[in-house]
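Hey, I'm writing a tutorial for new members on how sequence and structure tokens pair up, and I'd like a real worked example in the thread rather than a made-up one. If someone can provide the structure for the chain below, I'll link this post from the tutorial.
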Amino acid sequence: MLATFASVRVAAQIGAPPPKSFFDLPSDVQGAIRDHMRPHAKDQAVLRRYANLVTSDAFVGADRATQLAAVEALSKRPTDAKLGKDLQAMLADPRVESGAKTKLAAAYGGAGVTATTRDDLRRTAGGPAFKALSPDRQSDVLAGIVADPKASDPLLFLTSDPSFGALPEATQSKAIKATAVPQRSDATRDAIDRLVHTPEFGKLDEKSQGRWLDALGHADPVVADRAGKLANEWLDKPGYQKRTDDEKALILSKIARGADAPDVVTVPVGHYEQFARPSTLTGGATRTSTAFETVKSAEAKTYTVTIDKQKIEVVIPTKPDAAGGVYPNIDEIRASLERMPPSSRKELKRVVVEPRAEEDTGARARAKGVVSLYPDTKARTSEELTSTLVHETGHELGERVWGPLSSTPQQPSAASQGWKAWEKAEESDGKWPSAYAAHSPHEDLAETMVLYQRVRGTSEEAAARAKMPARFAIIDDLLTR
């Protein structure tokens, strides 16, 4: 014990005269100092760092909890030549409130925390936005900067807006943690900041806010970046921007259910092979056709694909607009028709390849079993083309049984009892099969149909039904109509 006291005295003599005696410190602080110095009794450089810290005016004037945290921080990084000085500077900084100094001292000792990171921590903790946060949220911010120093500025921007303080504590915590995920992309961090500060986000219920932030803070960067892209796409839509804050909040609450979902439901390679049935192909003569939507008429080859006695007409233009992109050919369409689940294929009477592109349109369901396919920037895979047809026949089935729907997330309209039941099922299930499904109940039915046909009869079916039991039950019934 006497040897430890002597080490403190010797170490203190190496630096400037102490402003206050070691023995005036609280007894448990003295004990902590002795315990941490003992392993370094022969290392004068380390002893000097301890002595300079514990005899400084800033350390002596700090509260007991902060003193203990500072000593503990130095003990974790005793060879860090600048840590002791940084601790003294932080303890002496009048901009940092007393309660925050304890948290900062603990953060300073974190593994991998550099002098630059400590500057960021101190700068953040000294700002008015940080002081306005609750103690727990302050801890979230400091932990976020320690986890990823590049999150320092984004966290400062996030918390500095007055609207942030009006959010529920749980929402604030999720927003801070989502922003501070290590290596989070700048674009996604920007999307978090932008979304959280909108008036409509503040109007969401806490569950919907959490859904958005869980997606934006997802550990998988693909999921997080996709959610950020989805948020920006909606916030940028002219039609969205023109709506009231209450209307925007309704849209955001609906889209939140698919914020962590893929853009569209995808199907594994080879999945549709289980449905493959042979077909016969007849026709192919060239004649003028009026079957198109994008032109009044054009020369086209008209084929008939027959599968299990079901006849499906396929119309393909002979001279499509080359600038439109890549058009599916008869062999690709025939193969996809052969591999469609029979319960979806029965809705088809005609497939029309449009001779011109239409912006943001890959396919469209038309009246009474007609589906138009538009060119794409690249050739669709067999699974993509088949899924497109399954999706569009989902539209066909819904309208055949329930009638047309003119409802969107922005403007729910009076729909038939069938569509109303579907919307209630959406609310009950609380999840979208894809982000695209959030556009309307019509798109949700079509996307859920693709998911249904993807998992039906597989090991994935039970889990999918557990997530969307109400809608799967409705589809069970629809496919018998």
